[in-house]
Amino acid sequence: GENVEQHPSTLSVQEGDSAVIKCTYSDSASNYFPWYKQELGKRPQLIIDIRSNVGEKKDQRIAVTLNKTAKHFSLHITETQPEDSAVYFCAPTGGFKTIFGAGTRLFVKA
Amino acid sequence: EAGVAQSPRYKIIEKRQSVAFWCNPISGHATLYWYQQILGQGPKLLIQFQNNGVVDDSQLPKDRFSAERLKGVDSTLKIQPAKLEDSAVYLCASSLGDSYNEQFFGPGTRLTVL
Question: pLDDT at position B1, please?
Fold first, then answer.
């Protein structure tokens, strides 16, 4: 079956530092690459997404980069803040099929 | 705009009992998803509807789980009989309908099977 892997599974950074989470997928039909943030006890919410015809997208402190050839995309968070502490999921999608990664737990220490 | 509604929010049952969850998606959203999220894991797709037709139910344990989406709007997910390993949060999500669309999640139903 199709496979999605996220690394690292846990990431701890100091407030103000940058954080990078990588998502590797196997389905070559994937053409939509979103990242969701899930705070403790809450529902997942989209924070940024990218389509396959774009290599990078930025929205204030967050950015997503895509390497379709290598089948991976990454979430970049700069100037991290304590409120960025959450679990982040990648969810590569292709042909109406979405597979969520296992998640990366980000801790931002004040 | 109203979000995705789910009920109940919490449910505690004993193993071998049955349970049903309800979801009302965002108005106009053609695609509806049911996910199972076990503590510490990512959401796992159980079933995906496009309008009132099933697009993907490959990971739905069909011997005990069933789902329907009447008239292409509301949906119910049923478990009968429940097992201990069904303890999880059941998330309903909806999207506009094509593969580039954001999924909007409901608050989830936390199921505990004793």
Answer: 60
